[in-house]
Structures are given as C-alpha cells and as structure tokens.
C-alpha cells in the first residue's frame, strides 16, 4: 500500500512538472476542467524559478507575493465558475519596461536603477483584470535598444539552443522565461523586432501587434512612433488568447485554418541578403512545406524598401534620443557604450529632416501596400543570422555592430511599413519564418499563422 501511495504521489508530481512545458491554452483548459488549481500551478512555477540555475539571468525581479495572491483569487473564481478569461489563473512574465506598482521597473539600465512606479502599466492592469498571474519582471537589452539580448550592465539571459550565444532581444528574458519553462507565456515590446527576434532564436511564437493596437501607457518608451506590445508564446493559440487578455477583447476563431488556396509573397528585397546557411535552409524548407500543404508561393521584389532602410536610422535614433536625452546626458557613464553611441546618434538629427523622412516613409508605406495587396501574407526569413557568440560580442566592437544590424533587419520591415507580424518556428533550432500582413489585420494574421503552424508541424 505504501508503494502504491508513493507511486500516486510521484505521478502527481510528474504531472505538475509537465505544467511547466504546457501551452498557456492547455493550462487554461486544465483550470477550467478543475484538473489544475491555479494556486498549485503558481507554486510549481515559483519553485521552478527559485531552483533554476539561470534564474538571475532571466528574471530581474520575481513578484512571488503578487503571484500567489492573484493565483488564490483565480482559484476561487474557478471553483465558483466565474473565470474572467480562458487564461484566468495562468502565470506569465513581464518585460522589465512595463510598470508594476510598488516593484522596480528599470528597463535594463542603471539609469533607472531603483525606479519604483506607483501604478501598473495599462496593459498589465487589463491583463490582471482578465485573471493573468504576474510571476515577475524579466531582463532585457538596455533601454530595449538592441536586438541581440546582450546586456553587460544588468544581465544577459541564455539562449535555449546555445549556451555560448545570446538569446535575441530586446525581450531577451521574456523569451528565456518561456523557453526554459519558467513562465507559460511572456509579454514583451517590439520596436524593431524585439518580440520576434528572441522568439525565433528560442523556437517560440512571437506576435508584433499593429502599432497602437495595445496601449503603451505605463511602459518605458524607446521610440514613440514604433513601440508596440506583444506576447511570446508556445503556440499560435496562446498568442491569440494572450492578445485577448492584453486588451480585454474577444477571441479569434482559429478552427479549420488551412493554407490551401492561400497566396504568399516570398519577399526578396533586402531580407534575402547575407542570410546564414542554416537560416536559409530552414526558411527554404518551411516554404516547401507550405507549398506542399497547398499554398502558392510567389517571389516578390519591392525595391522601395531599400530606400526605407536607408533612411530608417535617423528615424529611430532621433526618437530614442528625444525619450532618453535627459537621463543619458546626466549620467552617460552608467550606460553600455554601444547603446550610448546608438542613442546619441539621434542628437544631430534636425527637426525638418525628421519630419521630411516621416513624410517620405508614409509614401513608401503606400507603395508597399499596393505591391503586396494581392497576397494573404508576405514571408521572409525570421532572422538573417544565427545567435551570435556572447564572448565575441563582448570583445569585438565591429562584430557587435555588424550582428546587431543584421539581427534586426528582417523584422524591421514590419515596423517600418506599419504591419502586423508573426514569427513562427520552423522546426530547425533558432530558425524562424516571418508572416507579415497589413496593419489592423491582427486577427487575420493569427488565423493565417494557425494554418501555417499546422503546415510546418
């Protein structure tokens, strides 16, 4: 009898450990059915975080008291049949640029060390109202101004596929928290690829929402005209449910989604230059799977994108400098020199130049929209390069600059063109594919993503 009891206990413990790797959607279903108690689920995640050898490289701060309180409330709602959403009671992490009341929010920089907001960011407030459980704040690239995830000022999270490489950024800890089983999903921001790059390099789904779709109030700004909020997840279904939870909206119908009969443009301009062999092989194989599942793949050149990329640097740096000038110039020695140099690049951009560039970019967006109007989505390799070596980034300045620009290049198409964008894993470690659609078509993108996910599985 004792042996039988021990076996039952072991089976229960194993099942609870499996929760760490389940999709957020499946955890939500488990809570709904009564098989999972949110309190137990929260405790399993908090214990996993506490015991993980790289905890301090992934989480900047763990909000255990808040998580337990929110989980207890979710448990009572579940027992009463009054759940607030499909993810009510599911534990997630938050990038350390979203304000948390009474808990430091420092945006990965010593310039904000000890900054403790008094209220939650708007998107966190909404998510809490939908029942999501806040596990804590994750490390990130300094002020979110790098796609590499390397941050010598606070911490550099690990890459799930290469212990010697960076994880991608700037939502680096967000991706690591999910990839290492320390959160069911994560919330990050995407200004030039900061949700999608770490999603690609850690084999996750990353959603860059349409600019303005989710509120940025109460989040630390990088570039006011480009900042967006988005989830990093284990599945398209999770991304869809997270979008609902982050805005308090209605769910997207993903049932029966198929790529059969869809027409995809395979973008050629800019995004296919200097693509690493492994990235190219994984992307090509993904296109072949989509075609085999019944999609039409059409190569597409949009030459005007070359001009958009050529003019993009002052648009980003001027915006960043406007947001960070006072803090940066007051204590420049507190900032990593590569980030400092990049921010200060916006110091000499003149107002009339900036406004003229934005007027030109809006015209280019119109040309791009016309060129891509006949396609269900536009595809390209998720990230051109593979995760760069951490030690070399730390010691080779030219390598850092080269890899950072290449890392953010393909994802930046969506930011520059004002699109909604999804990063999907291809099945090749640290290789993903991007699906881009017109801004405002987030729900349609998720349905296309569900179809593509099934074809690539």
From TrEMBL:
<dbReference type="InterPro" id="IPR020556">
    <property type="entry name" value="Amidase_CS"/>
</dbReference>
<protein>
    <submittedName>
        <fullName>Amidase</fullName>
    </submittedName>
</protein>
<dbReference type="GO" id="GO:0003824">
    <property type="term" value="F:catalytic activity"/>
</dbReference>
<dbReference type="InterPro" id="IPR036928">
    <property type="entry name" value="AS_sf"/>
</dbReference>
<feature type="domain" description="Amidase">
    <location>
        <begin position="44"/>
        <end position="446"/>
    </location>
</feature>
<dbReference type="Pfam" id="PF01425">
    <property type="entry name" value="Amidase"/>
</dbReference>
<dbReference type="InterPro" id="IPR023631">
    <property type="entry name" value="Amidase_dom"/>
</dbReference>
<dbReference type="InterPro" id="IPR000120">
    <property type="entry name" value="Amidase"/>
</dbReference>
């Amino acid at each position: 009898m004792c042996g039988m009891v021990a076996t039952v206990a072991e089976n229960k413990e194993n099942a609870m450990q499996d929760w760490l790797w389940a999709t957020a959607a499946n955890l939500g279903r488990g809570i709904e059915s009564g098989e999972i108690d949110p309190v137990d689920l929260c405790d399993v995640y908090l214990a996993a975080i506490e015991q993980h050898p790289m905890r301090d490289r992934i989480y900047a701060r763990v909000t255990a008291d808040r998580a337990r309180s929110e989980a207890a409330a979710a448990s009572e709602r579940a027992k009463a049949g009054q759940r607030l959403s499909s993810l009510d009671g599911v534990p997630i992490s938050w990038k350390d640029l979203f304000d948390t009341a009474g808990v430091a929010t420092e945006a990965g920089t010593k310039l904000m060390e000890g900054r403790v907001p008094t209220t939650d960011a708007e998107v966190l407030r909404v998510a809490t109202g939908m029942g999501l459980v806040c596990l804590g704040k994750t490390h990130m690239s300094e002020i979110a101004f790098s796609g590499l995830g390397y941050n010598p000022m606070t911490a550099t999270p690990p890459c799930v596929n290469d212990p010697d490489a960076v994880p991608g950024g700037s939502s680096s800890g967000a991706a690591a928290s999910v990839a290492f089983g320390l959160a069911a999903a994560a919330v990050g921001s995407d200004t030039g690829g900061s949700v999608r790059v770490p999603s690609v390099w850690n084999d996750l789904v990353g959603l860059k929402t349409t600019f303005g779709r989710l509120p940025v109030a109460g989040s630390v700004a990088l570039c006011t005209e480009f900042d967006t909020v988005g989830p990093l997840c284990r599945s398209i279904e999770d991304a869809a449910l997270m979008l609902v939870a982050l805005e308090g909206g209605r769910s997207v119908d993903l049932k029966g989604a198929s790529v059969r009969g869809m027409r995809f443009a395979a973008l050629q301009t800019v995004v296919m230059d200097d693509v690493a062999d492994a990235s190219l092989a994984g992307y090509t194989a993904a296109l072949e799977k989509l075609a085999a599942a019944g999609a039409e793949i059409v190569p597409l050149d949009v030459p005007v994108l070359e001009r958009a990329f050529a003019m993009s640097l002052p648009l980003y740096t001027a915006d960043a400098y406007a947001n960070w000038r006072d803090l940066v110039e007051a204590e420049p020695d507190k900032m990593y020199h590569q980030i400092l140099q990049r921010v200060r690049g916006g110091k000499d951009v003149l107002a009339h130049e900036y406004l003229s560039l934005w007027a030109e970019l809006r015209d280019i967006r119109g040309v791009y929209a016309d060129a891509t109007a006949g396609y269900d989505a536009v595809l390209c390799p998720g990230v051109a390069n593979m995760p760069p070596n951490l030690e070399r980034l730390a010691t080779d300045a030219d390598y850092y600059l080269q890899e950072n620009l290449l890392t953010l290049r393909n994802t930046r198409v969506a930011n520059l063109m004002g699109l909604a964008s999804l990063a999907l894993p291809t099945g090749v470690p640290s290789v993903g594919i991007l699906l881009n659609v017109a801004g405002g078509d987030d729900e349609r993108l998720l349905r296309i993503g569900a179809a593509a996910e099934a074809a690539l599985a």
